[in-house]
Amino acid sequence: DAGITQSPRHKVTETGTPVTLRCHQTENHRYMYWYRQDPGHGLRLIHYSYGVKDTDKGEVSDGYSVSRSKTEDFLLTLESATSSQTSVYFCAISEFSIRRELFFGEGSRLTVL
Amino acid sequence: DAKTTQPNSMESNEEEPVHLPCNHSTISGTDYIHWYRQLPSQGPEYVIHGLTSNVNNRMASLAIAEDRKSSTLILHRATLRDAAVYYCILRDPNYGQNFVFGPGTRLSVLP
Known about the structure:
Chain A is an all-beta fold and 113 residues long.
């Protein structure tokens, strides 16, 4: 199994509070991704990174920011959480971008009350 | 358009082959067809991908139509562990690093 760790795995927070999810990899893969999964929408890309300090937006990036200061860590931040951001968040990594396989983490379930 | 069409659900008996179909009639000439699956309460897991030729790996086989407008994922002997949602996906033309995940096919395996 690919070495991907997401933390926290479960979090309950209140509207308006900041939240940071962490994705840590031990594979030294170049590409890292954050997806969210909601009933009726499947998985949707939030942001991705193609190297240290190199990030780009996905299709649902509004309300989210990311940072990657080290190869192994990709942080997803909700500056001011809203109830619409209640979701399951998955981190994925890839050595050669989506043209090859993605390896997904176990997911982080976030509930915003 | 990177949309794919799959049946919502399928059933199979344990130890029998399973053929999961996928239509992608508007696929571009250079796009790979990817299959992932998601077991309950887990992240998606890579199964297989291909461009034009049929592909085999330890998990499954991928049969791609000659016109590339459809493909079939073949599980040669279904096990209970293969019960999952199977996604046939293409790259999103609007975001080069994105896959377009649809609802997938929920496969049930009966003992």
